[in-house]
Amino acid sequence: MSAIASAAVSAAAPSTPRQLRLAARAGAWSAPTADVAPGYVQGNLTILPQALAADFLLFCQRNPKPCPLLAVGSPGDPSLPTMGADIDLRTDLPRYRVFRDGVLVDEPTDVRALWRDDLVAFLIGCSFSFEAAMLEDGLPVRHIEQGCNVPMYRTNLPTAAAGPFGGPLVVSMRPLKPRDAIRAVQITSRFPAVHGAPVHFGDPAAIGIEDLARPDYGDPVRIDAGEVPVFWACGVTPQAAMAQAQPELSITHAPGHMLVTDMRNTRLASF
Amino acid sequence: MSAIASAAVSAAAPSTPRQLRLAARAGAWSAPTADVAPGYVQGNLTILPQALAADFLLFCQRNPKPCPLLAVGSPGDPSLPTMGADIDLRTDLPRYRVFRDGVLVDEPTDVRALWRDDLVAFLIGCSFSFEAAMLEDGLPVRHIEQGCNVPMYRTNLPTAAAGPFGGPLVVSMRPLKPRDAIRAVQITSRFPAVHGAPVHFGDPAAIGIEDLARPDYGDPVRIDAGEVPVFWACGVTPQAAMAQAQPELSITHAPGHMLVTDMRNTRLASF
Known about the structure:
Largest sheet of chain A: 7 strands, antiparallel
Strand content of chain A: 15-25%
CATH architecture of the largest domain in chain A: 3-Layer(aba) Sandwich
Number of domains of chain A: 2
Distance between the termini of chain A: 34 Å
Oligomer: homodimer
Low-confidence stretches of chain A: 1-6
Mean pLDDT of chain A: 92
Order of helices and strands of chain A: HHEHEEEEHHEEHEEHEE
Radius of gyration of chain A: 18 Å
């Protein structure tokens, strides 16, 4: 948990997605959303000026594993009707990050004052959905056991660029015994809209990761004897692309403070 | 088979995707591509001016079942490196359709003379891939048995619009016994990149189809006793959207004359 999270407002845990969104909107919830409204899809938010929207959309199309698009808004429209009733993307996330020219400048709890007629919202799938499926199947998810963030690493695997967007693939890592890793491949393959099957397992150096104990984002986790690290494409990849593109304005969710949608996780299962 | 097809050049059937593309490029193959290079993905081509490309990309993102994008080219670039070595989209399809302001004006065998620096190519998945999986599983595919085109129908189901692109969902229909229809749901669910699971089965009127014997595109097929019509989202949907948007220039493959790629059908299976 970050300093922000521990300072956050989180009195009574909402039990439905809409209750969480309304609590965030009212300023009554600014904590992370892990474990809130279990069973419902949570999404990574990226908001960009329309001038960059086409290139970012193409970047997502060309990199579907790290950037699985759940929805794209219309210019100037802060709703996202396919993902939930009455969503207001300016207020309904517990906390945001605001970037100017690619530099983090603020972490507000609403972005009404920043909204413009040319802003376009992108919602990208999040591994919370496939982790729920892994847990339901009895597989261990180490960072959840340890109560920390998932470890994430920049790799030497390039994304497919589109306009100013490019850069390295970022992966998340979960240690698993080989038998469980095989089952995790099966389970996560069913969820192409939330990163799908892993991209690598085993030797970290093979994808340019020097030290598993020093993740680039998130927290290190314990790897037990007999376990192998398993790597999935990660929704932080578009943030790395954003840092490269340096848009004059971009707004994202604060890490762990996701949009909680009305869509059930099971609706993302391809089979 | 259309008049065009029967007049087409198709001397020796190429056995690999690249051989087919080179034969088309050399003017030695202008016939349909069904049954050519079995096992490889064939795609629906749409080429548009860059000014409309962002809206069309968004239209595809919002309508993934009828418009599953396999690849998007860069402006002015007639290659499509993720789909095959040395592809030249101006020459490598056996036949094209050229539209001016939404109206069909020509069906040439290459479009080099029309190419411009601002043209963007979109490749959309095609049901050939899931039909191959159905046939391998022993399921009947009626229009293949009858040697005609699949019947396609405009429905009363709207697509999600994006800019000038919108209009009705177009579906293709394959009659199946209920047991086979269930299996077909399983098989085609594995192929989200080529329209995925059906959108409807049974009563045609429920989705606005008046008469199965009079398809809007393709040919009618026989429905045997005990069979139900099963409807899949169809790659003709973007053509209907194009007719609505009336771009000053658009180029597509001629029906049945697809881009034959180097990607194996099995690579599109989500699981």
